[in-house]
Amino acid sequence: MSYEVNGKSFSQTPRAGQCLRTFLHELGQFGVKKGCDAGDCGACTVLLDGEPVHSCLIPAFRAGGRAITTIEGLGGDHGAHPMQRAFLDAQGFQCGFCTAGMILTCATLNQAQRTDLGAALKGNICRCTGYRSIEDALDGTSNVDDMVEAGVAFGRSLPAPAGPDVVRGKARYTFDIATEGLLHIKLLRSPHAHAKIVAIDASAALAVPGVHAVLTHEDAPPALFSTARHEKDWMDPDDTRVLDDTVRFIGQKVAAVIAESDAAAEEACRRLKVTYDIVPAVIDPEQATAPGAPIIHPDRTTANRVADAQRNIVAERHAEFGDVAAALAASAVIYEGTFTTQRVQHAALETHGGLAWLDETGVLNIRSSTQVPFLTRRTLADIFGLPADKVRVFCERVGGGFGGKQEMFVEDILALAALKTGRPVKLEFTREEQFIATSTRHPMRIHVKAGADANGKLTALQLNVLSNTGAYGNHAGPVLFHAVAESFGVYNCPNKKVDAVAVYTNTVPAGAFRGYGLPQSLIAMEAAIDELARQLGISPYEMRRRNIVKPGDPMLSPPPSEYHDVLYGSYGLDQCLDLVERAMRADTPKPDLSPEWLIGEGIALTMIDTVPPAGHVADAAIALNDDGSFDLTVGTAEFGNGTSTVHRQIAATVLATTVDRIRLRQSDTAHGGHDTGAYGSAGVFVAGKATHAATMQLATELTAAAAEAWLCDAGACVLEDEAIVSGVRRMPFTELAAIARERGRPLAASGNSGGTPRSVAFNVQGFRVAVNKGTGELRILRSVQAADAGRVANPMQCRGQVEGGVAQALGAALFEEMVIDADGRVANPRFRDYHLPSFADVPRTEVFFADTSDTVGPMGAKSMSESPYNPVAAALGNAIADATGIRFTSTPFKPDRLFPALHEKFGS
């Protein structure tokens, strides 16, 4: 058959049943992405005879003889298409995985369609941006600073260095590579929530043509580990094997088939015969701790870092400051309530996956979609008994993470398969596998009890938390401890009590997710503050002002932390409250709504430590090149968090050059050094400090080298406009590089950051909402967030992080929910049945930054990737309560959840 792709003819016959997406990808059109394979996300959008289509839904043979345009060919022979330039000017992307499909759809919109973008873009999902920058691209708005001179990059809205490649489909993600002799892996997964594997008969599977191997628990190393990746292994329990002889949730991997094609591997999986001994399962977390409940990990002990395996308790925390009971008895007002939060999927558009191969030197190479390449390498070396220098883990651009890729879900199987077969192998999760077999946010039940005196001063705070960690304990303890830390610590109160437990159940595991426990606990904590204020007749703003910590106050959460390195590097919480209150009180057009609509406002605040405790390490290295440019090497990964841009801004500012003169290498263990990973809000705060240290050291080396050449004092030399200057003398970097080369002393430096001391970031979210008392429908009339990010390294990017965090959190607050049935099965493992926020769902959020500069962070900056998410659901719950007079205590706040209580109060 003949195909015309981007004006070029291809004579190739697709496989039977092959969709257009995979066909184009095999032709090298890597801009066509896989996000869902069900027509729900739009990442695979191409133009077919000029019309946008989801190529995952089009049989490849139906495109024969028709004009196919992918993102690579959109501009034709004329360079970038106007829409590609518009997205570049507006920086209408973050991770960029959705961008090709989004641009192709936007490029076809007529004027009528542009008047209703909610309808026009309903087939294209962005998980990162919050859509404002995408709308800016359609409006022709530029969000980048032009003509930024040498040495002043920090603090400016500079574009992402990968931007031109992202908008033209040239940015390379995990699977955008052609590999010769590649074998494909498919996983057989458990249909049972809890069972022991008695036998696996692979004979029929091995008879399938093209099948090379079937791997089971008998082929896997016996080592126990955690899929969670932290710098310190003691943070997580050792309760997982590469392949286990016991399955503990529906969807757990049972066997791996390696074959010449996905089709052969899938057929072999169907032919595997597994004999199970089914044992009782427990799905409900409260029942899991009851006497007589099935024990999920009976052999685990405290040596495996499991608190009480016989009660299914992974981690727990019980402590009290003061006397909470006595303080509550003496309080003028008390509020008590129980809140529940649901299971949420990360829904990064690029699923987990990777490739593995052994190179000619015997090094095991893993190319994967990961936030933590260095930690993954360390664990793989331990599991398989390999020297660290015989394992390389790297990623290029990552299609979203949100904490879900701070896990090792595929790299262990990839390593096992590559080592067993000696061939290059590929494993790419389907969207359904992403739902049933990776990780989720921890569902929690939070009971809060709080008291205050007649003046609005808090007298007592008490939290009781039950966290469902699922079948494995990855991140169970740290998430639980974080949930009851800063949520408490941000308020001054003499009496505080915590009882918190994380338990195993026979359900899909929970893990790291943006906010890391705080979004759950804040729903309860911030509701309590509002309810106390309401009883006392004090405004929610004033109630918080009377009780929030201020510089000099201890940030206390029971039990006392063993880590005492959290400082007020900068303090802008008071400014954030003022900024939100001022914005919410500003005159705005009154909504044209009928009397059935109830209007209310709500706020919530959050504090977050900018780095996890116990160390977070980053190394950086930089060297001067002969042409006066610099090579900067960092370990942190780029997945839309913007660190690639900020690292270059730091280096360019310190070295008095421009960002285009900083060539960045990153996220590859082969580059040397170490990097704990891009998580815990550490990408800028820790890795950025390493870059700052390295560039400051290189600046010293440059001035010393110039001073030696000039026979003058190095103190009289300064860096200025890509040169060393001393009085009237000026030596360009190119000349300095030539001198260094002649002397055989390359000019290079390295830097390190250990993640301590730590600082705190603050955010305040405000909403004005309308709730229809007859239907439960909810509309957001205004969304405002103020953030203390220290000195903002890149205002455009930081604003995008806030907007994206709010949008993602609104999805979880309003409609996202993974449904687990009575057997422990995920009932809605696809986007079609799991409502992700689309353009029409997300209001514009007004973003304000406090005027601070952090004394701890690099050049005054601190974190702002996780924290914008945290106060959103809490503020929304407070706004709904203000509108309706009803305190809703379970998320998501869906209309069908609101309706019964509204009907009971207001009638028909």
Automatic annotation (TrEMBL):
Q: Which UniProt keywords apply?
A: Iron, Metal-binding, Oxidoreductase
* Molecular function GO terms recorded: 2 iron, 2 sulfur cluster binding; iron ion binding; oxidoreductase activity
* Pfam families tied to this protein: Ald_Xan_dh_C, Fer2, Fer2_2, MoCoBD_1, MoCoBD_2
Annotated signal sequence is: none
InterPro entries from the xrefs? 2Fe-2S-bd (IPR002888), 2Fe-2S-bd_dom_sf (IPR036884), 2Fe-2S_ferredoxin-like_sf (IPR036010), 2Fe-2S_ferredoxin-type (IPR001041), 2Fe2S_fd_BS (IPR006058), Ald_Oxase/Xan_DH_a/b (IPR000674), Ald_Oxase/Xan_DH_a/b_sf (IPR036856), Ald_Oxase/xanthine_DH-like (IPR016208)
Does the keyword field hold Iron? Answer: yes
CDD domains, A to Z: fer2
Highest taxon, organism lineage: Bacteria
Query: Which residue range or ranges hold the 2Fe-2S ferredoxin-type domain?
Result: 1-74
Q: Which family does it belong to?
A: Belongs to the xanthine dehydrogenase family.
What name has this protein been given in UniProt?
Answer: Aldehyde oxidase
- Organism of origin is Bradyrhizobium neotropicale
Q: What high-level taxonomic lineage is stated for the organism? A: Bacteria, Pseudomonadati, Pseudomonadota, Alphaproteobacteria, Hyphomicrobiales
